[in-house]
Structures are given as C-alpha cells and as structure tokens.
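User: Working on a comparison across species. This one is Carnitine dehydratase from Bordetella genomosp. 5. Can you predict its structure so I can line it up against the others?
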Amino acid sequence: MSEASVPQTGALAGLKIVDLSRVLAGPLCTQMLADNGADVIKIEPPSGDETRTLGPPFAASGDAAYFGAVNRGKRALSLDLAHPEGREVLLRLLDDADVLVENFMPGTMARWGLDYEQALAERFPRLIYCAISGFGDTGPLGGLPGYDAILQAMCGLMSVNGEPSCGPTRIGIPIVDHLTGYTAMTGILMALVERHRSGRGQRVEATLFNTALSLLVPHAANWMESGQAPRLLGSAHPNIAPYDKFQCRDGPVFLGILNDRQFRRFCDYLGLAEVLADERYAHNAGRLAHRDSLREAIEAALRDRDRQGLCQALMGLGVPAGPVNTVPEAFAQPHAAAMRVDGDGYHGVGLPNQLCRTPGAPGRAPPRYAEHTEEILQEAGYDPDRIAQLRACGALPSAT
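Assistant: Here's the predicted structure for Carnitine dehydratase from Bordetella genomosp. 5:
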C-alpha cells in the first residue's frame, strides 16, 4: 500500500477497517478510527450512502455537508453484495482486514452467506466484526429498523427534554446515533485489546436501543429509587439547583452551580445577601425544593447584566456559567479554533480527543462515490482485466 494512500501516524496506524455502514452511527465510528490512523475502506451499495443526498447544503464535491461530516479520511468503492462476485471481492478484502463494520438490517448478512458466526469467524479468526442496529437481532424488538428520533421517543429521552408548555421534544442533535458510534468504537477497541492477548477476533454489537437507555442518567436511577417518573423541567436539572438557563440583558446564560461553595460565591458576586442568609437556600436539597422562588431572585439580579462579562467573572471565581451560544458563536470562540477543520473545499469538526505521543489528525477529504476503486482492488491483487470483468457483470458499480 502506498504511503500516500494511508495515514502513517496515529494510535491505530496499520489497522485495516472494512466499512459497510451508512448514514451516521457506523460512519462516525469509522471516521474516528480513520482520524487516528486506521485505513478505512468505505464500501457503498450501488445506490450509494444516502447521506450524500441529504442536503442542502452541498459541498463543492456535490455531496451533502451531512455526508462530509462523518466520512473524511476514508477510501471508497462500491460493491453489489447481492451479486456473488461482489461478495467474492468483499471476502478478498477481508483477508488482511482487522475490523468489519456493518449496520444492515439484522439478517441481511446471513442472507448473503456473510454472517459472522456461520461464515466469517472460522475463515477470518482474527476479524473483529461490529454489527450496529436499532434493536439487535433477538428479543421482542429484534430485527426491527431503528432511527435516532424514534429511539429518543421510545426510550424516554424526549420525555425529559422540553418545556411543560410545549411537551416532549426531540433533542436537537441525533444524540442516539452519535453515542452509538462511540459505543461501537469502544467495543471495537476493547475487542482489539483482547485479541492482542488471545489472538482471536469476536463479534461486537452496538444497538441504538441500549445506547438510548444508557443516556438516562440520572433520570432512570432517580425513578428506580423513588418510583416517581421524571418530568419535563426545560433546561433545569432534576437533582441540582440553580442549574438552569437564565436571561441576561443581552441574551441567555446557563448557570451550573453544583455545591454550596459555588452558591456562596455566586451570591456574593451578585450582592444577593438576602438569598445567602435565607436558610431555605443554604444547601442543595433546600434550593431544589424552593427552586421557583430562588429563580425569581436570580432573574432579578441578572436582568441588567451583560452575559459575556458576567460569565467571564463567574468562571474566574470557579462558578460554572456560560453564554447560550448559537453554532456560529460557539465556533467563533478563540478556544474552539483547533476544533474547526478547513481545507480543499472541506469543512468539518476536529478530533475531540488528544493523545500526546500518537496524536490523530483529520484525514483526507470525504471520498467521492467509488473514488478509489482501482487503487483498492489492485492492492487486493486484482489486475485490470479482472476489474473490467467485475464492472461488466455488475458486481462493481461504476462511479457516478
């Protein structure tokens, strides 16, 4: 493999990932692996990854910005896995692969004779096989399709998000898909560590359902202990006060006051001597029980304050406070400069983690459909005549 084609740095340099996934959770997982040095081969169906079309906005490449957000650093080809010779190409690519990631409907790989237990485990004993799905393939909901917003609704996330006046609301980012991508990556990395000891691969499963339920901290534990179903609190916290959004003269801020020491500093700074002397607010339990009256006092104190100066002063005192920024405002913060990636017509978000000895780095721009077909197949041992035959029989869809 040419040095130009695969990142040579990063903690995962030398790993080969075959990525059959589409949309968000799987592609985000494999993008994070690519950012840290893995060679990720993205294999798309003849119709392509549907996120290429989910715009506007569209990038200069013609693909939606959505696609670019989770597919940088990869090489791409397209295979028709319903075609026997398409499956033969996949098996050839798995000969030296470390990880396979797929998010087909449960049972799809088995219909193609590619399921892990019956077909791949014996042939590729070191392979880590990661299956991402909505509900898994067993249990009362096994085999059903899963979508982020539906899982937010089914698993109680919407029931704790929103104001009482408007009712349950979808969280504004695809948080279940996003965390499922991280869950899948964590499982893959754990399996790779275990393989270092045993020499054997294994199947890793990540489901949107389990991931969504795992997000219910502390709401699930609160309900299990108290028997009281969580209710809509807007931006407030069920266990802490004041931990909420408040209005300043020029916009909203969020206060995250966790303990008595922070509360005293907050009141001292704002001149809230009467609040500080009120026994109702001396400790968190009391502040929580009297959150409405406490809110009134805080709102009156903040009404004529400018939010940037207020938040800067409070943070300097060790009192958590921040302006409620828009997305452009968030990336305009000087501290966010390293988290924006721009170049060669690509715009994206940088790596959230940093390793001091083996740092990752954003990879190449997201691939065009089937962009690296010849390069990948030649590395796998296919000569030009055989590649032409695969195109002619339909196993290898042409680039569009």
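For your comparison, note: Residues 1-7 have pLDDT under 50 and may be disordered.

User: Helpful, thanks.
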